[in-house]
Specification:
Layout (H helix, E strand, L loop, with lengths): L3 E4 L9 H16 L3 E4 L11 H14 L27 H13 L3 E4 L3 H13 L15 H9 L5 E4 L5 E6 L3 E6 L7 E4 L7 H11 L4 E5 L6 H10 L6 E5 L2 E2 L15 H7 L3 H9 L14 H7 L10 E2 L2 H14 L2 H21 L3 E2 L5 H4 L3 H4 L9 H5 L4 E2 L15 H17 L7 H15 L3 H13 L7 H8 L1 H18 L4
Parallel strand pairs: 1-2, 8-9, 10-11
Antiparallel strand pairs: 3-4, 4-7, 5-6, 12-13
Helix pairs in contact: 1-10, 6-7, 9-11, 16-17, 16-18, 16-20, 17-19, 18-20
Length: 504
């Protein structure tokens, strides 16, 4: 048997963490088994589906590196695979044909119940403290009774007959599952009265038509599986193997949802989490590698992935762990690759600074970023943090808080003295000798001569030239800023403080 599994997102919202994790597990399983990974778009919810959401989903999967073997036409490229089309709205004839086959065998029937009748049934069941279920009003109508309802102008939906008994299956993750069909809510609507098919029907027809061998999805679908198994059997199709993944939970063990949590992949991408870290994190969100290792490439995950190692219990979304993984992966990126990835994030940060009144001296390029990599690579948790580390190199003037210019052990007068003395020491270094190891010694010697702690002097200089109390190494920062701009900023900071000194 050739393994065939699929991801079938609905373009009614952006690609979110849950769908991305499900897509990843399907991708890893297919690749590990030498099988086929299929992408299918379930777009029958016409009112909520949008081209923008579809683009977000496809772009997000591509960015994560989850390339599909079969799928819909994208960006002018034709659909790939022998089971096209891969958009459900283009497959409506298949669903009509399948419904007709079920009607012909009396495995489904037309249902003429009105909304008022169904609401009244539900209200009566609630009053009697009974679970909601279809009462079967239309299950055994005669041909004449059906004609009479149609004469009243009623347009029928189609219901699938749920037989009595037990549906049992062996879930790859959860083991043996048995569910009584009495708990399924009665006969199931598979086609609305306007002719549009419902999810439970389309997903089974498509999985059967596309020869899907393994359905790997979230455990919130577990209660749907008996309905799907019954439909597979009724259509005469092979029943695929099922594997239901654990829910993704917030740290308080509530279900992760877009109302309570940040779930969109685009948001994490926008913050600057690198794709390698996000894939690594999603893989470990419910799956155990069987080792103490935590850092895995996509290729290593493909080699090691085993559905038997997926947990059945909920997976906690730990943002701190994601940030740690992102930092680890940033440290592993080649310098050129990292520099290229950082440029758009720094450019966006500078654009925000301009909106706040700063002037961008120049737009950053990869050439600008390359020499900064030794200063920032070990300090970045996400790519989006680059602005806080180096944006002062690209803007003028910088905003300096006068209070931060005065270290804890100094007063304002000492700070002015320290900045002016440091300025003279730095100015004495020519342009040729303006290097980190040429600057540190003379400035430490200055602090010793004046009886200052070197840390206080260095903090005053740091704030004066960057506007911040935390930056990459100070002397490397000065070199990156350049001799002229370093001196200008020291002059400006000392002047600012001097104006605030009391006059005699």
């Amino acid at each position: 048997m050739t393994v065939r599994c699929r991801i079938a997102p609905s373009p009614t919202g952006p690609l979110h963490i849950g769908t991305a994790r499900t897509a990843l597990y399907n991708f890893l399983f297919a690749r590990h088994e030498g099988g086929t990974f299929v992408l299918r778009l379930e777009d029958t919810d016409v009112a909520r589906s949008t081209v923008a959401y579809e683009r977000d989903i496809l772009d997000g999967l591509h960015w994560l590196g989850l390339e599909w073997d079969e799928g819909p036409e994208v960006a002018g490229q034709p659909a790939r695979g022998p089971y096209a089309p891969y958009r459900q709205m283009e497959r409506l004839p298949l669903y009509r044909d399948a419904a007709e086959r079920l009607l012909a065998r009396d495995l489904a029937y037309p249902c003429y119940c009105t909304r008022d009748e169904l609401d009244a049934d539900r209200a009566a069941q609630e009053a009697a403290h009974q679970p909601p279920r279809y009462v079967g009003r239309c299950a055994n109508l005669t041909a004449g009774e059906r004609r009479a309802r149609e004469a009243e102008g009623r347009r029928p939906a189609i219901r699938f007959r749920i037989p009595p008994g037990t549906v049992a299956f062996d879930d790859i993750i959860r083991g043996r599952v048995e569910i009584e069909t009495d708990a399924l809510g009665g006969d199931l609507v598979i086609v609305r009265s306007d002719g549009t098919p419902l999810y439970h029907f389309t997903v089974v027809v498509d999985d059967a038509e596309m020869a899907i061998t393994h359905v790997i999805r979230g455990e919130d679908h577990l209660s749907n599986t008996p309905k799907h198994i019954l439909l597979f059997r009724a259509l005469g199709a092979d029943v695929p193997a099922f594997a239901h993944l654990p829910l993704i939970l917030n740290p308080d063990r509530t279900k992760m949802s877009k109302r309570k949590s940040q779930t969109a992949i685009a948001d994490y991408r926008g913050e600057g989490f690198v794709r390698e870290a996000l894939v690594n994190f999603l893989a470990l969100l419910g799956w155990a590698s069987g080792t103490e290792e935590e850092i895995f490439t996509l290729e290593q995950l493909v080699e090691r992935f085993d559905l038997a190692r997926v947990h059945s219990g909920g997976a906690i979304f730990d943002r701190e762990r994601l940030e740690w993984l992102s930092g680890q992966w940033i440290r592993r990126l080649p310098t050129e690759d990292l520099a290229e990835r950082l440029v758009p994030f720094l450019s966006a940060d500078l654009a925000a600074r301009v909106a706040g009144g700063a002037r961008v001296v120049r737009q950053p390029t990869v050439e600008d970023m390359r020499p900064l990599m030794p200063l920032v690579q070990e300090r970045l948790p996400v790519l989006g943090a680059i602005g806080d580390l180096v944006d002062f190199l690209f803007i003028d003037p910088i905003a300096v808080d006068p209070a931060l210019l005065v270290p804890r052990h100094w007063d304002a007068g000492t700070a002015v003295e320290g900045l002016e003395a440091a300025r003279d020491v730095i100015a004495a270094r020519g342009r040729v000798s303006f290097e980190a190891d040429e600057l540190e010694g003379p400035l430490r010697e200055l602090a010793q001569q004046r009886g200052w702690k070197a840390g206080d002097l260095f903090m005053a200089i740091r704030v004066a030239i960057t506007g911040r109390t935390a930056t990459p190494p100070l002397f490397d920062t000065m070199v990156a800023l350049g001799r002229a701009r370093t001196l200008e900023r020291l002059d400006a900071a000392a002047g600012m403080l001097r104006e605030r000194l009391p006059t005699d």
